[in-house]
Amino acid sequence: MFKSSSFSRMATAATLVATTASAHAAESSGLRRVVVEGPHPGVPAWFSRTGTPGSEQRIELTIAVKQNAEGKQILEKEVNRRSDPDNLAYYGKWLKKAEVDALLHASDTAVESVTRWLVAGGATGITRSDAGDFISGTVTVAEAEQMMGSHFHLYTSAHSGQSVMRLNQSYMLPADVAEHVDYVGPSWHFPKKRQQRGTRSKVDQGVTPDFGVTPDFLRKLYNAENAVGRPGTKNIIAVASFLDQYYSPSDLAMFFKQFAPSAKITVPTVFGPNKASNPGDEASLDIQYAMSVARDIPAQFWSTSGQQPHNPENEPFSKWLMNVSMVADDDLFKSVSISYGDPENGVYKPYYDRVSTEIQKLGARGVTVLASSGDDGFYADDGTFPAGIEYLTSVGATMQSNPEVAAGFSGGGWSSYVKRPSWQDEAVSQYLNETNNQHNTKYHIPTGRGGPDVSAQGVNFQIVQNGMVADVSGTSCSAPTFNGIVALLNEARLAAGKSTLGPINQLLYKEAGPKGLLNDVTKGGNGGPGLSISTAKGWDPVTGFGTPNYELLKQYVLSLP
For the whole model, what pTM was predicted? Predict the structure, then answer.
């Protein structure tokens, strides 16, 4: 789930040779194929090849169909002006799902071409998003390999033991199909690296560690002790879970009994599979803290497994993006946190850009998206995906209290893919001036988007997993915590007859940060490869603008249209 600097930056020579050879073979057979997504970037260091899938095994292909180019430009303009607190004429006036779909609708030619390719390949159960920009179908491994001009292998993670099916080289599609496709999943996008820390003690013995972060501690620290959801509220908070990370309803019930006994809403709505008998630390952490910080606000648990029981192998992040794009306006979550990430240089840029557009689609509908900034300290030579996307809010980590200090692992730095947005210029320039421009080295040229944007506690969180209290740490603690505060702010606005906050970065950089509406963290730093970066007054690439002060932020957001 976190950033790792060990991901291969480019395809190996063997991969390039294999790709070239496959291309020549395709040409000689009379079928002109085109490589999609560029060279295979290589297998992450923590994965090893362990076998070959059966040729008759079923696999679901999700095709990201190219969206209307003019519509994408309009969408970006609309998201920016509707989330700009200085633009009072448009602020908070979000688009409807039908309006977003109409802007980005794939061409009839593109939809027909991709659908025809799937049918010809033997696909069954073909479905598409309402905008036609995602199309999926199920085929056998043998059919998928023939369709994509590449071969699938099984790879196992040294960290989790999870086995996934991925291509061993670049893939190619017929030229008349490739021109309409951004990417196909699953292909060579590997699961995000997760980190686990902590110890356990039995809940039924009533054992609570002498020191540890709990929901009540967070709500008091961030001045939100009295904030709760209203009966019948239309507000919804969500967490996104991937790759065999499930939660246990009994663990969640124990958690609420132990740490938030006054809560009235204690059960989330589940979208996707949930193997309650095999709860994961990440999923348990996310849902327990999102719900307990955002007390009594309806919650959704979005689970997208790499391989669902009795269902075909799929690429979870792509499938999740497709699924949420089809949710009706009233049922769509208003804020969501993602506790997973990859190094940017390990992500193909067109894939990155497409995910950015999908985040914009959510933003245009009034959704706040938050992501962990990573657990590797200062970025050595690239940023973190998806946290570097400018339309979502990147969350770093702090620890201790009175005062809070930066957690040494808090991910931060500069994106190598995304240019610094204009709304970030003043904050970053001020930081560089105060620190004597220390980052202008050959590895650290801060012209890209800076991160994180904000932070929250991230050390020694008490969760319940398998009936035991587990002590966990990481920016994966911070993201659902800040998500909970955003949900409470949304609740305040909805109660006042206003819209939800949607993308909050312009609000943070133009108003909330400079006006001191967050708790500025000025002690500590994050160590990374080659540099150790300290916090500073105002924004910094360790903790962003700092941690939330709910009451101050509430007063401000209620003053907006």
Answer: 0.90
Q: pLDDT tens per residue, the chain (561 residues)?
A: 343 333 232 233 333 334 433 443 444 344 688 989 878 878 888 889 999 999 999 999 999 999 999 999 999 999 999 999 999 999 999 999 999 999 999 999 999 999 999 999 999 999 999 999 999 999 999 999 999 999 999 998 887 677 888 998 899 999 999 999 999 988 887 766 553 334 433 443 333 334 699 999 999 999 999 999 999 999 999 999 987 789 999 999 999 999 999 999 999 999 999 999 999 999 999 999 999 999 999 999 999 876 543 345 556 787 898 999 999 999 999 999 999 888 887 788 888 999 999 999 999 999 999 999 999 888 766 789 999 999 999 999 999 999 999 999 999 999 989 999 999 999 999 998 888 766 555 556 688 999 999 999 999 999 999 999 999 999 999 999 999 999 999 999 999 999 999 999 999 999 999 999 999 999 999 875 556 788 999 999 999 999 999 999 999 999 999
- Dihedral of CA atoms 383, 388, 393, 399 in degrees, nearest 10, equals -10
Rounded to 5°, angle at Cα 388 from 480 and 42: 105
CA dihedral 290, 293, 298, 302 (to 10 degrees): 0
Please tell me the distance from the alpha carbon of residue 117 to that of residue 135, in angstroms, as a whole number: 11
- Annotated catalytic, 286? yes
DSSP 188: S
Q: Are 518 and 546 in contact (CB under 8 A)?
A: yes
Does residue 305 have an active-site annotation? Answer: no
**Whether the Cβ atoms of residue 369 and residue 363 lie closer than 8 Å to each other:** yes
> Choosing from 143, 145, 286, 342, which is the catalytic residue?
286
Q: Is 36 helix (H, G, I), strand (E, B) or coil?
A: strand
Torsion of CA 277, 280, 286, 287, to 10 degrees: 0
**Pairing state of beta strands 393-399 and 454-457?**
parallel
CA 337, CA 289: separation in Å to the nearest integer? 11
Of the residues 187, 337, 394, 476, which is catalytic? 476
Q: How far apart are CA 443 and CA 145, in angstroms?
A: 39
Phi, psi of 405 (to 5 degrees): -130, 160
* Active-site annotation holds for 281: no
CA 14 to CA 7: how far, in whole Å?
17
Contacts of 383 (CB under 8 A, 6+ apart): 343, 344, 413, 414, 415, 416, 417, 418, 448, 449, 451
Q: Are 59 and 167 in contact (CB under 8 A)?
A: no
Active-site annotation holder among 78, 143, 282, 520: 282
- Chain-centroid distance, C-alpha 511: 25
